[in-house]
Amino acid sequence: MKKIIFLVLLLIGFTSVKAQEIANIEVSNILDNWHNAAAVANFEKYFELLSDDAIFIGTDATENWNKDSFKIFAKPFFDKGKAWNFISIKRHIFLSEDKKIAWFDELLNTQMKICRGSGILVYKSGTWKIQQYVLSMTIPNDNTDEIIKIKAPIEDALLLKYRR
Questions:
Q1: Residue ranges per domain, the chain?
Q2: How many helices and strands (H and E) does the chain possess?
Q3: Any residues with CB less than 8 A from the CB of 111 and at least 6 apart, and which?
Q4: CB 139 within 8 A of CB 149
Q5: In which order are the strands placed within the sheet that holds 113-124?
Q6: Position 9 pLDDT exceeds 70
Q7: How far is the C-alpha of 136 from the C-alpha of 105, rounded, in Å?
Q8: 158: pLDDT strictly greater than 90
Q9: Comparing C-alpha atoms, which of 97, 98, 16, 21 is closest to residue 8?
Q10: Mean pLDDT over all residues of the chain?
């Protein structure tokens, strides 16, 4: 009897690990396909991989778009035949217990050099969709003071605008 219980528990554990591996591969493929769609300027594919209520947060403090406003911003780039080319060089994916929500962070090779992307995907109607994506430029800690000097005048104006 103990052997049967052990085998059942082992099978359940194996099935759970396998489900996690499959979901990780699916999420990674969605993100890779999304980045590739931008690189080859496939507007339809790029936005098809976003959920209807998706949010894209860019590197500029003013860049916080819902899907429709992000489409308007991005369309001229895609119309030129190449939007942007982000290649993931390292990615971590985490899943909720029910395997219907994934969150991730990734380092990207981009035209802005190394950047970081992070976000959330949701599993609905048999497919993963990107619900939020945050793009951040990485800054070496030794260069922080220099970057603050560049950002200060612009961001002081933003602080006044958004101060409540």
A1: 2-162
A2: 4, 6
A3: 84, 85
A4: no
A5: 64-66, 50-57, 127-137, 113-124, 101-110, 87-95
A6: no
A7: 11
A8: no
A9: 16
A10: 88
Token representation of residue 86: 């982000």
Instruction: Flag whether pLDDT at 139 surpasses 50.
Output: yes
Per the CB < 8 A criterion, the answer to whether 99 and 92 are in contact is no
Answer whether residue 46 shows pLDDT above 90.
yes
Beta strands in the chain (DSSP E): 50-57, 64-66, 87-95, 101-110, 113-124, 127-137
Residue type, 125: S
| Cβ atoms within 10 Å, residue 90 | 10
Tell me which CATH code domain 2-162 carries: 3.10.450.50
- pLDDT tens track for 62-90: 899 999 999 999 999 999 998 999 999 99
Q: Give the model's pLDDT for residue 13.
A: 53
Q: Count the helix, strand and coil residues of the chain and give each as a percent rounded to the nearest 5.
A: 50, 30, 20
**Position of tokens 């990615």?**
91
List phi, psi (to 5°) of 121. Answer: -120, 150
